[in-house]
Amino acid sequence: MSSTTNTDTLIVGGGIIGVSIASQLGDRDVTILDSGAPKYGTSIGNAGHVVVSHAQPFAAPGMIGMGAKSLLAADGAFAFGTKLPANAAPWIAQFMRNCTKANVKKFTPGIHSLLRSSAELIKASGITTTSTSTWEVFTAKNSEQRARAEFEHLTHLGIQARVVDRSEALETEPSLYNRVQAVVELGEDFGLDPHELWQHLRNVNPNLTFHSNQSATQITRERQLYRVITAAGMEFTARNIVIAAGAWSREVGKLLGINIALMAAKGYSVTAPMGSADSEFPNSVHPMILSDEKTATNPLGEWLRMSARFELTNPNDRELNHKRVQHLYTRAATVLKLPPIPTDLAALSPWTGLRPASADGAPFIGPVPNLPGVYLATGHGMIGTALSLGTGDLIARHLEHQKISWSELALSPR
Ligand SMILES: Cc1cc2nc3c(=O)[nH]c(=O)nc-3n(C[C@H](O)[C@H](O)[C@H](O)COP(=O)(O)OP(=O)(O)OC[C@H]3O[C@@H](n4cnc5c(N)ncnc54)[C@H](O)[C@@H]3O)c2cc1C
């Protein structure tokens, strides 16, 4: 066993949430432990959408029907993995109970306020973001009515949106086939490269020490301090502990006797090389949410990232199913002018990541009751990149005993 390192705040997990928190704690001595090289976490290969429009928690009325329909489809967006962990059944039951108007009312203001502050902080950070807003694209029947309903719903929530005329959409977005029926512009949403954001935030705080390949395996409380021991035998003491271990937060919580209702939800992405604006296969101008294909797409320079699927599974499941990869690409290719699918799928850099999904669809951000100095920053589900810097700012305010609004308090683990 090596000697003990003392630190003010120890963050378990170096994904986008861990580095966002560290970036907001410039005056403190901060240590991050990550069990891998964090690129194997969820924060690097995701779609990179910053979605201020996604203010409603995932558990909302209508989700059960949508999920059931998807489960019946051969390759639906929502699915159950083959090796579900023991906590799956109670999580699913809890999620179904939470698909209510009351759940939406409770969490929407807090999520919305964090998404807005995150988007502002991300823009102010100077990293590259798309100059165009995100488009929600509809292709199925009744598209026009659905687009209008989406526009009205977003406007009602106070979110900037605009119905884009179909001919304007086809003229200004060269990557779309004319199969497209309707488009809603999500005025405050944009895209970025999640790897660039992660790398930028990792380097912001000069007082941050980042340890890769250090898995926290033991946490004990000793008077005012917490002692953390890693699998590789490193030892730390800290005044504050932040659990930001993504889909593995439940396992880390257990080390302190906390039961975090979390499930891992596997998603896929591919990143395809694309052509210039006047080529046969032009890259998109806009980040897009292909509503009927349940696929998110995002132009990253000369590449197009595409991602889909929400498959409940266990936190060790990183299996890359080739059929799913093919399906993701070919489905997007019905809406976007993509090159023929390559025979060697490795050319698409296929990737899977595990979203940390909470049973009410809202993240846990704040102090843990009865464990002074322990904070949770997890459960960000489908919108961890979008909520990243807002989460960092909120944890920093909790640590500094600064003002927290009522809507933000709703996200507290209590
Ligand atoms: C396909 C896909 C597309 C997505 N698209 C978007 C999008 O467009 N926009 C958006 O906002 N979000 C998106 N998301 C969601 C987003 O990626 C996640 O919400 C976010 O990455 C979660 O970040 P995190 O830091 O909590 O977790 P992670 O990035 O998973 O980081 C957790 C870290 O904790 C470490 N860890 C685990 N256990 C321990 C331990 N015992 N000790 C030390 N370290 C430990 C892990 O190694 C890992 O690096 C997408 C996700 C997927 C899968």
Describe this protein's structure.
With 414 residues, the protein is an alpha/beta fold. The chain folds into 2 domains: 4-43 and 196-259 and 361-409, 3-Layer(bba) Sandwich (FAD/NAD(P)-binding domain); 49-190 and 263-358, D-Amino Acid Oxidase, subunit A, domain 2 (D-Amino Acid Oxidase, Chain A, domain 2, 2-Layer Sandwich). The chain has 11 helices and 19 strands. The protein has helices at residues 16-23, 63-72, 88-97, 101-124, 143-156, 166-172, 194-202, 249-254, 322-332, 388-399, 406-409; strands spanning 4-12, 30-33, 49-50, 78-80, 134-138, 161-164, 182-186, 190-191, 208-211, 216-222, 225-230, 235-243, 262-273, 288-290, 295-300, 303-313, 351-358, 364-367, 374-378. Strands 4, 5, 6, 7, 13, 14, 15, 16 and 17 form a 9-stranded mixed sheet that branches. Strands 1, 2, 9, 10, 11, 12, 18 and 19 form an 8-stranded mixed sheet that branches. Strand 18 (364-367) and strand 19 (374-378) form a beta hairpin. The longest helix has 24 residues, at 101-124. The radius of gyration is 21 Å and the shape is globular. The mean pLDDT is 94. Flavin-adenine dinucleotide binds at residues 12-18, 33-36, 38, 41-43, 46-49, 215-216, 244-248, 252, 267-269, 296, 307, 353, 355-356, 378, 380-386.
